[in-house]
């Protein structure tokens, strides 16, 4: 397998033409869905909460620093558990691939004022490049899926097909983005030969 590279700088240290060429956002963030059907799929509504830092409260007691993590984990566990039971799915084991697309509402400051209050400002960011951290969102969601007995343990996740934070304004143009705060979750099982089912 060969990988094509684009030189970023010429021998004088100046950016090359290829490196300076703009890249369309759709080229960067338009994932191709896998050709196989997921073994589990669910949409969870609620404000995603990150799991990460803990605060020491004395006497060996530690609590989550983020107040949002417990309601989020509860929402994921409840919704995923109900979806698993409805589908008659037994707890998954073996290596799994995952997709998680977290949807967040845009802050009021991303919009214009007055008659432009429904229009995004040109300066509004394309994607949420602010806290919470994507890895901490994935961690809280993975743990909640274990609690829901969707899979035996989150250590079974061997890779991500897609892991993103998006704004709800991307719905329905971008697959997997909800029209409200939440997350779409899909899981694929890998066979012993490494082929997805």
Briefly summarize what is shown.
The chain is an alpha+beta fold and 197 residues long. 21% of the residues lie in helices and 20% in strands.
Question: Percent of residues in helical segments?
Answer: 10-25%
As a whole number of angstroms, the C-alpha radius of gyration is: 20 Å
Summed over residues and divided by their number, the pLDDT gives a mean of 84
CATH class of the domain at 40-50 and 64-189: Alpha Beta
General shape = globular
**At the third CATH level, what is the topology name of the domain at 40-50 and 64-189?**
60s Ribosomal Protein L30, Chain: A
Work out the number of β strands: 6
CATH architecture of the domain at 40-50 and 64-189: 2-Layer Sandwich
Category by helix and strand content: alpha+beta
Main pleated-sheet profile: 4 strands, mixed
The CATH superfamily of the domain at 40-50 and 64-189 turns out to be: Holliday junction resolvase RusA
Describe how the helices and strands are arranged.
Layout lengths: L16 H4 L4 H4 L11 E6 L8 E3 L5 E3 L4 H19 L8 E9 L29 H14 L9 E11 L14 E8 L8
Parallel strand pairs: 4-5
Antiparallel strand pairs: 1-6, 2-3, 4-6
Helix pairs in contact: 3-4
Q: Can you describe what's shown?
A:
With 197 residues, this protein is an alpha+beta fold. The protein has a domain at 40-50 and 64-189: Holliday junction resolvase RusA (60s Ribosomal Protein L30, Chain: A, 2-Layer Sandwich). It has four helices and six strands. It has helices spanning 17-20, 25-28, 69-87, 134-147, and strands at 40-45, 54-56, 62-64, 96-104, 157-167, 182-189. The strands form two sheets. Strands 1-6-4-5 form a four-stranded mixed β-sheet, with helices on one face. Strand 2 and strand 3 form a beta hairpin. Helix 3 crosses helix 4. The longest helix has 19 residues, at 69-87. The protein starts with 16 loop residues before the first helix and ends in an 8-residue tail after the last strand.
